[in-house]
Structures are given as structure tokens and as C-alpha cells.
Amino acid sequence: MSTIADNLSALANRIESAARAAGREPASVQLLAVSKTKPASAIREIHAAGVRDVGENYLQEALAKQDELRDLPLIWHFIGPIQSNKTKAIAEHFDWVHSVDRLKIAQRLSEQRPAGLAPLNICLQVNVSGEDSKSGCAPADLPALAKAVAALPNLRLRGLMAIPEPTEDRAAQEAAFASLRRLQEGLDLDCDTLSMGMSHDLEAAIAQGATWVRIGTALFGARNYGPA
Ligand SMILES: *Cc1c(COP(=O)(O)O)cnc(C)c1O
Questions:
Q1: Rounded to whole angstroms, how far apart are CA atoms 79 and 214?
Q2: What positions does the domain Alanine racemase N-terminal occupy (predicted)?
Q3: Which residues line ligand 1 (CB under 6 A)?
Q4: Which terminus of the chain, N or C, has less C-beta within 10 A?
């Protein structure tokens, strides 16, 4: 077996044990393969091993890979910070966006979603750790944002996403994920998605109700951000 296929089977075991430990069906947790910085060939490999959903953070990089992988029935998720001038291409080329954190971006995505396509699936990114990270709406602003986004015609609000401050402390990981879950429960909206958990904290996220785990390193190996 190749490394990626090995990694996938180890990861599937982690997801399954975490789900069972939480009294959940393993199938209620979906895997999003996060392929930023990795070549199209790595995505081809993970698809051959049975993965269908791919997450990318950078628009130009994602579009280049989509072009190379046209022949595969992949589902593309945008998970990175979004600038206004990128919304048109995102609305045209993705099935999901996990990182919407302000109304202006949601309005543009709705306006720019092509007529022939299904509504764009949206998760609102929330800053649950409260550290001054650049991304995510403040929990206090979430109810109004969610209500406004749910009313946009060409979007389908699916749920919430968070990237908590990294920590190895399991209790702290769970506390952050639990706060996202409670925020979602507090919204009076029909949401079915909690996008939370990465390579180092997926067990805690699954214990607190994650429906998507977004996994890069544990599937594709460490990323190299050095000069190309
Ligand atoms: C890179 C990234 C991931 C994957 O992180 P790993 O620790 O490599 O699993 C998940 N979500 C987002 C938003 C990311 O940017």
C-alpha cells in the first residue's frame, strides 16, 4: 500500500473508534481531505482510495488542481479566508464553503452563484477561542449573521465551523468544540453540520458532535511551506 492509502486506513480507524467512544455511528462523521500545498496527484490517489470530498484554502491553487482533476467526480470545499474579489470564482467552482464569517461575503456568494447550480452549502466560521485570530465571527454576532445568511436565496446554511487555538490538552479541545456545538444548538435554524476537528484534535471534535473532520497532515503528511 502507498503511504496515502496507509494513512487513510489509520485515519478511518481513528474516526471509527472516536465515534464509537462517543456512542455515534462512524458514518455520521464525514472526512474532508485537506490538500493545500499538495499536488493534484495526491488528490487522485486519495480519490482512488475512496475519498470524494476535498478541501482547499487558496483559490488559485485550487482552480489549478480542479483543472487537472476534471475527470474525477470530486466535491470541492473552500475552507480558507475569503477576500471579496474571490467570491465570484468561489461561487462558480465550489460545492461548499466552510469559512464564511461576514454578511458581505455571503451576499456576494449568493448573488454570484450560477443559476444552473444547486445552492452553495455554507458553514459560518466562528472564533470560539476568542484569541485575536483574523478569522471567524464573534459568538455574539453569530445569531444575526446566521439569520441573514439563511435568508439568502442561492445559499444553503448547513452549520458552523471553527479552528480553535491549537492545544494538546484534551479537555481544552473539547471545551472549544462544545462551545461551537452549543452555539449551533442556540440558533433557531435547521442546521445539520459541525465542521470541526483537524489531524491533532479530531477525537475531541467527534466527541462533541463533529460531522465533518478536516484532515490534512494525517492523510498527506506534513506540509512544506518553504520557497518553491
Ligand atoms: C490546513 C487546514 C486543515 C487541516 O489541518 P491538519 O492539521 O493538517 O489536519 C483543516 N482546516 C483548515 C481550515 C485548514 O486550513
A1: 9
A2: 7-223
A3: 34, 36, 57, 79, 163, 198-200, 214-218
A4: C
